[in-house]
Amino acid sequence: MRLTTLLFAAITLGSATAHAALVDKPLSFSIGDTEFAGVLVFDDANPAKRSLLMVPNWMGIDAGNLEQARLIAGRGYTVYVVDMYGKAVRPKNADEAGAAAGAVKADLPAMHTRIQTAMKTLNEQDAVTVDPQRLGAIGFCFGGTVALELARSGAAIPAVVTFHAGLATTGPATAGTFKAKVLALHGADDPYVPAKDVEAFQTEMRAAKADWQLVSFGNAVHSFTDVSANMAGQAQYNADVARRAYAMMDDFFAETLGAP
Q: What is the pLDDT confidence band of residue 20, given thresholds at 50, 70 and 90?
């Protein structure tokens, strides 16, 4: 089953080049007494010129999300998979994941501190060179919500792409603070992101005078990039939409971060 899942993901994302030497390197930071244990994925033989903060879905740092990071790295990026929960929190099921994600979302200042510290950690590590002008952020589901909050926090990050993210916030962006260019990739039939949230997001982006794009994919619900999602009408993988979404991501980053 796992092999089938990874094969589908490789077909959707595109495999790394035959000569790529992808390396997984632990990359942690601490806030107070809590250690956050992320993973840096990069091509050791030919480091990418562009780098991404990747905030995974609510399962956090797990095998599936690390494999997804490797496949994305193979498209021409250094990828830092961010731990938003802390080293001691590794959800084993949806209930635990929901509790962990809910705790992060309930404290917006703490969330901002964590993702901003992750960004600083990536910029300052010495395993691979990171150009701050060629640094983007991506996020999936809960992770997309966090990536948007990084932009809302006023961080100097050039570009953010989200996949089936929650769009609502208790701290909307204001004009003059929102620096990132944003591409939000959304399932038009996502039952977890109601129309009022989509409308509020668009109103927020206009008020913030942001450079933003929202793509609503027809026939797509939540988790459309997640090959393991199989809840019909709620959270379900869609290979065609996933392929198109990743292509849009690449095009957007080529424009905002430069060519690979």
A: low
**CB contact at 8 A, 167 and 174:** no
pTM (2 d.p.): 0.92
DSSP characters over 97-135: HHHHHHHHHT-HHHHHHHHHHHHHHHHH-SSS---GGGE
Task: Name the residue range of residue 85's domain.
Answer: 2-257
Report the run of H or E that residue 31 belongs to, with start and end. strand 22-31
Question: How many whole angstroms separate alpha carbon 158 and alpha carbon 180?
Answer: 5
Residues 260, 162: contact at Cβ < 8 Å? Answer: no
Whether pLDDT at 8 is above 90? no
Q: What is the pLDDT of residues 161-202, one digit of tens each?
A: 999 999 999 999 999 899 999 999 999 999 999 999 999 999
User: How far is it, in rounded angstroms, from Cα 55 to Cα 143?
Assistant: 4
What is the CATH number for 218? 3.40.50.1820
